[in-house]
């Protein structure tokens, strides 16, 4: 479940980079949240 959320957040961030009307800070916050989820899962020893 968490990896699905992380993937969706990364995709939204990537789309935000290439869109003309990106929300700037919000997109970067989504990227940070996705990375935090991935790091926490790696620390817990679960596979990605």
What does this structure look like?
This is Lmo0937 family membrane protein. The chain has one domain (2-44). Helices cover 77% and strands 0% of the residues. It is built from 2 helices and no strands. The longest helix has 20 residues, at 25-44.
Shape: elongated
Helical content class: over 70%
| Proportion of residues in extended strands | under 5%
- Pick out the low-confidence regions: none
The radius of gyration computed from the alpha-carbon positions, rounded to a whole number of angstroms, is 12 Å
- The tally of domains stands at 1
Average pLDDT metric: 75
Could you give a short account of the major beta sheet? none
The helix tally amounts to 2
SSE ordering: HH
Keywords, separated by commas or semicolons:
48 residues, mainly alpha, 0% strand
Secondary structure topology:
Layout: H1 2-18, H2 25-44
Helix pairs in contact: 1-2
Short précis:
With 48 residues, the protein is mainly alpha-helical. The protein is built from 2 helices and no strands.
């Amino acid at each position: 479940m968490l990896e699905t959320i992380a993937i969706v957040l990364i995709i939204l961030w990537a789309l935000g980079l290439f869109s003309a009307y990106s929300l700037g800070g919000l997109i970067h916050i989504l990227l940070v949240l996705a990375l935090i989820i991935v790091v926490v899962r790696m620390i817990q020893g679960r596979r990605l």
